[in-house]
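@channel sequence for tomorrow's demo:
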Amino acid sequence: MSLHRFETSQRLPMSLDEAWSFFSDPRNLAHITPPEMRFEIVTPAPSRIYAGLIVAYRVRPLGPLPVTWVTEITHVRKGSYFVDEQRVGPYRLWHHEHRLVPVAGGVEVRDVVHYALPLGPLGSLVNRLLVGPRVRAIFAYRRRVLSERFHARVADAPAAAGDRAAAAPASP
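structure tokens (generated this afternoon):
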């Protein structure tokens, strides 16, 4: 199994409480997902996550065919981080850690995703040509939307300072 890692961070000019309120509401995921993916939650979703929460989505990650994706929120530390893991979906493994870190002028939002594809060695080729670029594009869209949505609150906040994005194979 080839394990891949994607990491990105973004500074937003908002309080930790505001950030937690936004990111811990599963219904907000639709607002930060590219519209062409036609993301929709297909199970009732509460306004706040909790450990053990199972949420099913319908999404079109690579074209017109819908994919059912079921995730479980496995870890939550209110105001600090949460983890979602795929239970059913297109990946062999999907583990996404969301961290919120107070910084001068706001909050740094950090995402670390570890994922693996099915198909063995062919999965690595599919990742290089299709999935890796798509994951980067989804998070680039998210970055733009979050910047637009929250940037006006504090005009001189360092929205891009310290941001980084990387996609590389993770060590086994």
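heads up for whoever presents: The helical segments are 16-23, 121-151.
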